[in-house]
Amino acid sequence: MTAMQPHELVELALGLSRADGCVVIADEESTANLRWAGNALTTNGVTRGRRLTVIATVAGAEGTAAGVVSREAVTAEEVEDLVRAAEEAARAAGPAEDAQPLIADRPASPGFTEPPALTSVEVFDAFGPALGEAFARAAAQGELLYGFARHEVTSSYLGSSTGLRLRHDQPTGTVEINAKTADLSGSAWVGAATRDFADIDVAALHTELTKRLGWGARKVDLPAGRYEALLPPSAVADLMIVLNWSSGGRDAQEGRTVFAKPGGGTRLGDKLGGLPLTLRSDPHEPGLEAAPFVLTHSTGGDCSVFDNGRPVAATEWIREGVLNDLITSRHTAGLTGLPLRPAIDNLVLETADQESAPTLDEMVARTERGLLLTCLWYIREVDPATLLLTGLTRDGVYLVENGEVVGEVNNFRFNESPVDLLNRITEVGRTERCLPREWNDWFTRTAMPPVRVTDFNMSSVSQAS
User: pTM of this prediction?
Assistant: First the structure.
């Protein structure tokens, strides 16, 4: 079997295609990871993977059909079988509702014929020793550290029968650390996202964990109810990601989501919150860079394989508190009359005045009485019409009184809509890059502020720890 570079596999597949149209995506992935438990490294490793996706389009009397087939670890000898499978799938399918002319007339990426970008354990050269120092400090303080760090680089090569030759290299790094007391009665979590681990301050992360474990020395039982709450950037990210995922233009136009206007149409132009918050995405956002063109392996909702290769641009989903844009493909933009706004793989929430925005610590200092959350997890949708979500608190809920954290509170189940929550935010802090807790397997590139919310609905007490 012959090894080939990803761009060569793309060219081979395109050359073998007999379909009316063809798009080929080769994804080359490499990952490096570390795991630790009880203040000691347990495993580390490096992996490589390759996936080849062929999208064949076949024109017919009733319209154009599409067949999509993806396979892992494809060799040169296996490409033709993959191409034929995609063509057969297209011929067996009915006309595609989202059929559009394939994207054309785009300049080739400069590095299209170059080898893929790779990661290795060397990405942890500074992180590893710093983690070892944290282990020593934790042991001396009677703490146990658990967690993992992962760095992945995916090089995606997209070619088409219309002449596209595009490439995108996407580095993604995450670190999550849990600190526990020696008797395992207390637990705290921190996480961070990175492109290269050069900006991860392990000592600062450990200091924050130690502070939170200290807060947990006093336990306070509180009943379910509505509380003023301070949400850190991680928790805000988990809620805003769901909001963004639910902002499809077609579903809103057809009355199926919270962004549908009663009586018909969408809520574009409606004011969602009292504060001038802007929720936006930009493929060129510094530190959160994402694919600058549509790169999708499947069709669904407001995403279409026919749009592969189309440029994406900076988009303000909410502008100063007003719903400004909804996600659309070319197909759903045509159906709804909405502007074309493809999804983008990052998300930023901010106010215009970042210089005077407070830190989370400053927000705590001016809290008379409220709850400081650490993170949210097990978030699930209850009602799409209001985007009501339910979920649990985890790894630390703290009571704040007269500007100081006075103890750790029991966990809760919450019921909240991120759209309704926007209207109850009374204070917004400084936006910073953060790692969502619940959704970081799917979405990591976020920058969010801490926020103060009135009447956060803790619907019941939870026994989760």
Answer: 0.96
Q: How far apart (Å, rounded) are the C-alpha atoms in residues 103 and 118?
A: 29
Q: Residue 48's closest CA among 3, 2, 112?
A: 3
For every residue of 262-279, which 3-state class applies, written as one string?
CCCCECCCCECCCCCCEE
Average confidence score pLDDT of the chain: 96
The terminus-to-terminus CA distance of the chain in angstroms comes to 51
* Residue 445 in this model has a pLDDT that exceeds 70: yes
> Would you say 277 and 318 are in contact if contact means Cβ atoms under 8 Å apart?
yes
Closest by CA position to 438, among listed 279, 282, 242: 242
User: Closest Cα partner for 236 from 407, 33, 431?
Assistant: 431
- Domain-ending residue, one of 198, 214, 230: 214
Show the domain range for 458. Answer: 218-465
Q: Which residue has the tokens 């299209």?
A: 112
Token pair belonging to 108: 């080739």
**Mind listing the pLDDT tens digit for each residue in 105-146?**
999 999 999 999 999 999 999 999 999 999 999 999 999 999
Residues 225 and 207 in one domain: no
